[in-house]
DNA sequence: TATTGTTATACTCTATAACTATA
DNA sequence: TATAGTTATAGAGTATAACAATA
């Protein structure tokens, strides 16, 4: 019977209320969801700091980048591409429009919709922010080799893009 | 991703306000953070459904599982292991205690702390829930081979566990 | 003086119902 | 009738400050 390595072992033979020295997370670490969430939070934390100078949250960055690469994209299309709900996009777009980064133009062939476009200032901000984001990717190479990073992204895509 | 077919754009050479047919997300898909978040959300969505019969959210599952594998663990230790803040754990523990899944016992060697333990009902629930969770892992094998899953988890750990 | 658990509270994120104008 | 954008609002998740009891 192994002796317990506690600061003050119980003096009697009664059952003892246990306490924990080192936390055992080994079971949770076998689960994909646990690891994916922890990793996502970790990466997003770094991303948040890097985007602070541009005053962009991850979702703002995603919106601006999609508008940059898809000029004329509609709110609805943005929502379905990013998994956000229409009511929650309105405020973001209002803020980005107030900062004169995006503008809402009438859609050429659908009177209900608005096409989204970057202003010149928006174009420049996105260029700079995307440059910073891509440098951040390279910086991950301190932990992961380029090959590992490529593999990781490929496997992540397999998870959320069932093809 | 819905692919809405809009009326054909006018074929003139004049300056035209563009619209978007197919959304180009290729730049965002080069970023680790974007892929990690999408994958985490996708996995957690499935996990949520699987845990619904047990009335456990992912965080409840994590808490119960850690208590199961670390009987006597304190609130503070749970918080640091799971990255949650003490004030936000209180309500969860109250709810789990009310459901008679966990009990707070006085800590054997620290009068300020409470040691957390599972009730017999909690033990059974965790056993069943962990079984379901592990079966879910195997189910991912429909998209990923066991080797790919192992690689993915290894790389995710490298991201959030800098060693 | 520092730490554990706790309360109160605020802020962000996400979700639902309903309205308007156009299709 | 259905869809795009919007408003209002509710709920969940996450954050900080401060307090009592104990170390």
Automatic annotation (TrEMBL), chains A, B:
Alphabetized UniProt keyword annotations: DNA-binding, Transcription, Transcription regulation
- Give the molecular function GO annotations: DNA binding; DNA-binding transcription factor activity
Limits of the HTH marR-type domain: 25-161
Q: Which InterPro entries match?
A: HTH_MarR-typ, MarR/SlyA-like, Tscrpt_reg_MarR-type_CS, WH-like_DNA-bd_sf, WH_DNA-bd_sf
Parts forming coiled coils: none
What GO biological process, any one, is recorded here?
response to stress
- UniProt xrefs under PANTHER family: MARR FAMILY REGULATORY PROTEIN, TRANSCRIPTIONAL REGULATOR, MARR FAMILY
Q: What is this protein called?
A: MarR family transcriptional regulator
